[in-house]
Amino acid sequence: xxxxxxxxxxxxxxxxxxxxxxxxxxxxxxxxxxxxxxxxxxxxxxxxxxxxxxxxxxxxxxxxxxxxxxxxxxxxxxxxxxxxxxxxxxxxxxxxxxxxxxxxxxxxxxxxxxxxxxxxxxxxxxxxxxxxxxxxxxxxxxxxxxxxxxxxxxxxxxxxxxxxxxxxxxxxxxxxxxxxxxxxxxxxxxxxxxxxxxxxxxxxxxxxxxxxxxxxxxxxxxxxxxxxxxxxxxxxxxxxxxxxxxxxxxxxxxxxxxxxxxxxxxxxxxxxxx
Length: 274
What we know:
- The structure is a single chain.
- With about 270 residues, the protein is mostly helical.
- The protein has two domains: about 1-135, no CATH class; about 140-274, Up-down Bundle (Glycerol uptake facilitator protein).
- The protein is about 80% helix and about 0% strand.
- It starts with a helix and ends in a 10-residue tail after the last helix.
């Protein structure tokens, strides 16, 4: 105990770093707990989501927040704060570079914010579309053919395994990024529209997984199915989490990372000496 007190000042920076990680982790845990409470109340027939709009517009946006905050943000930030705190004390030595540790914390926090903005914005758009389609009774079109097709698509997506969903998510965003690059090269609106047709058609035709598209398909299928199947619901949440990770991996590593290695890394553009 005396040794710990004596070495306390030496670990002051590590303690502050651990505290910074744990603040975000505990906030994420709190949000996950609160959204879980709203889900439980919804199953009990108490719908509070109209009063929470636009913060949490629907059951499925709350479900997505619950999964992301608990499974990803809380877990990752807690581990990143807890491990250095314990390791420095167990080994009896401070971090080799506290500055680098704070940079890593800043990158993680900034990445969390940058990821949250489009996810929440796209979720609102996708779930709003689900609401409009339900109000319009689109599922009844074609003597119920739309309902049958939507349920089949949703069940197929929810049944995908983790590895399969991850791979399909990586491949999907590779093609989406290709469409963006091609559109950026177009000079007119016609150029841009024509450029994106082929990559987008390719990923839809081949059945690749896009997280924002799934934010429509899965909630819509769940709504049509009446929310009664726990396995369907769990598979939908798993799909959204894994496919989102695959899309991020495909966009950053498969496309941006390759371009960085080819053109931006130090010495990439250097001409070999004769």
